[in-house]
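Researcher: Let's try something more involved. This one mixes different molecule types, so please make sure each is placed in the same coordinate frame as the others.
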Amino acid sequence: MKIKEIVMIGSGNLATNLALALYESHKTIVCVYSRTLENAKTLAERCDCRYTNRLEEIPKTADLYIIAVNDSSIKEISEGLSNLNGIIVHTSGTIPITVFSDQINNHGVFYPLMTFSKYKKVNFTDIPICLEANSVRAIIALHKLANTISNNALEISSERRKMLHLAAVFACNFTNLNYSISDDILQKNQLSFHLLKPLIIEMTRNTFLRKPAENQTGPAFREDIETLQTQNELLKSFPEYLEMYNLLSKLIISTKHKND
Amino acid sequence: MKIKEIVMIGSGNLATNLALALYESHKTIVCVYSRTLENAKTLAERCDCRYTNRLEEIPKTADLYIIAVNDSSIKEISEGLSNLNGIIVHTSGTIPITVFSDQINNHGVFYPLMTFSKYKKVNFTDIPICLEANSVRAIIALHKLANTISNNALEISSERRKMLHLAAVFACNFTNLNYSISDDILQKNQLSFHLLKPLIIEMTRNTFLRKPAENQTGPAFREDIETLQTQNELLKSFPEYLEMYNLLSKLIISTKHKND
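Model: All components are placed in one shared frame. Result:
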């Protein structure tokens, strides 16, 4: 089972980044599908291949079909892809492998643990690619393919992949919310978010040197009630962040005492 | 007004890092004070100077007294330092300059915007040092001193410094809490926190390329209700994080629609 020809189903940030990484690793993308023909065309032109917005026009003889669409559309699309011999995978962190009907002979998951934007092409070299498949032959083929774009492919069950995705929501999406709130507070006080850059770089570096819990600092961690009160006062100008401030401060304090 | 001789009051992470940075920039630390004599001694030995745990033994003729102690002790210590000609500063983000009595001729603030740990010596080169003083002569002297250890000294009022500190709590302390929760979730599922490293590095880089709000991704941002529900289910194993998960998801959604 060798993966030579690939169909990309989807044209969003993940689909685009993954298709380009495969294309640049000399894999052949034979077709891009998107509900919106214009989007399919844009990606297809970058991968030098055909495109369509009709599921029934997707070639039947490809070796791999990558469904990189919204979680809620995976089931429907996979049911529209019948009578194929190639492997069908989705790229979701949360949807289990059981989303695929047993009628699909070879199916699996190809989940790159990364945040993708429309602004920037991502380098896949270090990205963990979480693999799962319904057969040994399929998992071997997926491993081989993942290794052409990343040094960090690993097999992981649907249950643990879900947990990994949940952890990524805290580490990436919620962290980005913190940065965005910081930026808002600073901007409204005519201060630049870039003043925080050395602090953020240092904290991020420390995160990988020791356990994050060992790096915790700040007024909540010191249980400095006066500063917590002063900052509650300051948040009168930002009432939308007050509940979060107090909840996270409480969590920092209780985490500190967890092992008391 | 030239700062040659410096007294360091305090021996915690900030005091230690700042004293060493000044010492290594060929400034003379003449004395380290700490309530705990042993801690004063440890730092004094690294700065090649005297030490004491009695305020009245602090030399009266130094050019600068840096009070780098808990916020709640600044007032009391400054009141114990009377009849000095040198400048007295504190290093707090939140305490206003008015903590100092007018009887102290020259006073101000010397606040390095950074997280300091006992594990690691910090390089001050890029650290913003927020300065404030009650006289032009003092602010000029503090600027000159700050420039010997950092390229990033700036004058900033007590009011805006408080806001900067508040923004830093979100960007550093709360972000670290997120990493710590991620680590907890992963560890309990026999997964390594280092799997998230490429994701965290990418997200952190993006934060400084565009406005953080423009980088927001994830299930809440996509308003992917099914994934939010699935992750609520998963958090039954981590009930202490459920309220935070839902509050931050709600904030991501409301921030997205702020400018609708």
